């Protein structure tokens, strides 16, 4: 038996998953958007967003260190 689903079964699974997500959003009182919301993300107009903020002293080395620290989490 193959581990892959047939195209009909895959389409049915996607439709079922979509229906369940829409129902969950409706029960929660929210609207389901097209793009996912990322963890620790802010709206660009929020002061916490820090768009264009320098990382460390602005050097490439400080940027590399910052990225390495974030990826260890």
In words, what does this structure look like?
The chain is built from two helices and no strands. The longest helix is centred in the first third of the chain and has 22 residues, at 7-28. The protein has a domain at 1-31. Helix content is 47%, strand content 0%. The model has no long low-confidence stretch (mean pLDDT 80).
- Over the alpha carbons, how many angstroms does the gyration radius reach? 21 Å
Structural class: mainly alpha
Task: Classify the helix fraction into a percent range.
Answer: 40-55%
Mean pLDDT figure: 80
Residues in β-strands, percent:
under 5%
Query: Main beta sheet, described?
Result: none
Low-confidence stretches: none
> If helices are DSSP runs of H or I spanning 4 or more residues, what is the number of helices?
2
Output the helix-strand order. HH
C-alpha end-to-end distance: 39 Å
What shape does the CA trace take?
A: elongated
Number of strands: 0
């Amino acid at each position: 038996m193959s581990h892959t689903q047939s195209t009909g079964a895959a389409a049915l699974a996607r439709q079922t998953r979509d229906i369940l997500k829409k129902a969950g959003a409706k029960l929660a009182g929210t609207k389901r958007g097209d793009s996912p919301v990322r963890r620790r993300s802010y709206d660009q107009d929020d002061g916490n967003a820090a768009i264009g903020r320098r990382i460390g002293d602005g050097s490439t080395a400080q940027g590399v260190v910052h990225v390495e620290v974030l990826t260890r989490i």
